[in-house]
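Internal ticket #5521
Category: modeling
Description: The requester needs a full-assembly model to guide mutagenesis choices. All entity lines are attached below as received. Residue total reported by intake: 224.
Assigned to: D.W.
Attached entities:
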Amino acid sequence: NAGVTQTPKFRVLKTGQSMTLLCAQDMNHEYMYWYRQDPGMGLRLIHYSVGEGTTAKGEVPDGYNVSRLKKQNFLLGLESAAPSQTSVYFCASTRESTVVFGPGTRLTVL
Amino acid sequence: AQSVTQPDIHITVSEGASLELRCNYSYGATPYLFWYVQSPGQGLQLLLKYFSGDTLVQGIKGFEAEFKRSQSSFNLRKPSVHWSDAAEYFCAVGASTGGFKTIFGAGTRLFVKA
C-alpha cells in the first residue's frame, strides 16, 4: 500500500496563475482532507470530503476549490494564486478516526 | 466548535530529562484526542490517540499521554528524552460531526540539548 500520495511535491507559481494539487489514497478511506501548514499556526483545515461526490468547507476555504469525483482522489485547486497561499499543503484521509497524512506539497507563490 | 491550545510554542530540555508538552482542548462532547510528531521536512506521524477507556494511553517511541476531563487536557509525557525526539509536536482533537474532522493545535517545537 502506498498510503496517501500527493502530486507535485514542490511548485512555484506566479501571482494569478492557477494549479491543481492531486491527492490519492489506496486505503478505501471515506474521508479525505486538505490542510495547510504555516509557521506558528499548526495545520488548518481548508476543505474536506465525507465521501465520493461530496465536499465541505473547513476553517480556511477562501481562494480554494476541491473536487472528489472518485473515492480515491481529492483535488485541491487554486484558481488565481496569491502570495498568501504560499504554504505547505497536506492531504490526509481516514476511515473512522485516525488520520493518515501524505508527505506534503510545498507551494510558493511569487 | 472544536479548538486546541498548545500554550508552549517551543520547549528546550536536556537529553535524558523528562518531558511534558501541554495541550488543552475545547469540545462539547467526549473528543477523540491525538498527538502527532513532525520531524523537519517530513509529514506527520501519529504518536498516540485516546478514544475512551483508560485515561493514560501509551504510544510509540516511549511517549504517553493522560486525558483529564476535568481540566480539558491531554498532556504528552516522556520520562527520558533522546536527541532524536527533537521535532514539532501537534495535539489534535477529532469529532464525528457531519463527517470526521480533526482540528490541530499550533504545535510545540521541542529542542533537545546535549
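Resolution: model delivered.
Comment from assignee: Chain B touches chain A at residues 4, 6, 9, 32, 34, 42-44, 46, 49, 51, 90, 92, 94, 96, 98-107 (CB under 8 Å).
Ticket closed.
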